[in-house]
Amino acid sequence: FVNNLPNKNINFEVKDFKLYLNCDNIKASINGLNAEDFPIIPKVKNDSVLTINSKMFKNSLNYVINSSAISDARPEISSIYIKINPDQIKFIATDSFRLAHKTIFVLSDDNKEKIKINFEKSRNIILPLRTAGELLRILGDQNDDVKIIIDQNQILFDLDNTQLISRLVEGNYPDYEAIIPKSSETKCYLSKNDLEESIKLAGCFSSKLNDITMKTNSEKSQMEIFSNNSEYGNHHAKIDSEIKGKDIAIVFNWHYFLDGLKNIDEDELILEFNGDQKPAVIKPAKNADFFYILMPIRNS
């Protein structure tokens, strides 16, 4: 409303829980409420404090936030799971179809000056997705420290002149470690850029299920990508790949696959498979701080 007023002085007056505005020939009144009814800002005990570079914290949230579910029925997965240990901070998100996992190695040379943890025991918190999204907006492009105070069921983010207080999600986060493969039957080394371009092209010819098929050919050292749409046509591409183990043909949602690729910062990546019905792992070839697990589309 105010943005559309003339570029002139605006007079404000508050009376009987109403705000009266007067600008040139325009008058308006806005209904309000008793200020005493505004919720009291809760106090958070500062027994557990994490101080971390805001850019580092924001980047870590961005790695995983798109893999979180949007669900009122299951708030524990409509969230970001954060595990804080003296040597590592892990960020995990899943919607049951995919899982993103980002690790900050606290004691590494690059990070040890940017992180301070005042507690020795590990703390695990479930941060609501809405809070995570609002926090990303507040952090913006800042590169200062953010002080994070963790209470039993609340959390406070303190950054310069801004504080964000949120309740934490109660309950237990799903046992995500149970779905992380301990080994693989097939391992592929290939270029992220080549794979990303091929998947985007294949997506143009996918069906309503957004499905594409990936097939390894170890004899020719190639990964083949297929898609077919009865209305538009079909697509077939080949990209160079070093393949170790059994050949495989597996079907994925191409949108979900791209979500995992976009968070990998290096060009060489590794795909790990355990048959066409079990989750696959997507990760950078050199950096061990991120991996992405994706369930295949099961063949009927």
Q: How many structural domains are formed by the residues?
A: 3
By DSSP (H or I, 4+ residues per run), the number of helices equals: 4
The H/E string reads EEEEHEEEEEHEEEEHEEEEHEEE
Number of strands: 20
Helix content: 10-25%
Major beta-sheet overview: 12 strands, antiparallel
**Overall form:** globular
Identify the CATH class of the largest domain. Answer: Alpha Beta
Q: Determine the CATH topology of the largest domain.
A: DNA Polymerase III, Chain A, domain 2
CATH level-four homologous superfamily name of the largest domain: DNA Polymerase III, subunit A, domain 2
Could you give the order of strands across the largest sheet? 9-5-6-7-20-19-18-13-16-15-14-17
Instruction: Identify the CATH architecture of the largest domain.
Output: Roll
Instruction: Report, as a whole number of angstroms, the end-to-end distance.
Output: 55 Å
GO cellular component, one term: cytoplasm
Pfam families: DNA_pol3_beta_2, DNA_pol3_beta_3
Family: Belongs to the beta sliding clamp family.
GO molecular function: 3'-5' exonuclease activity; DNA binding; DNA-directed DNA polymerase activity
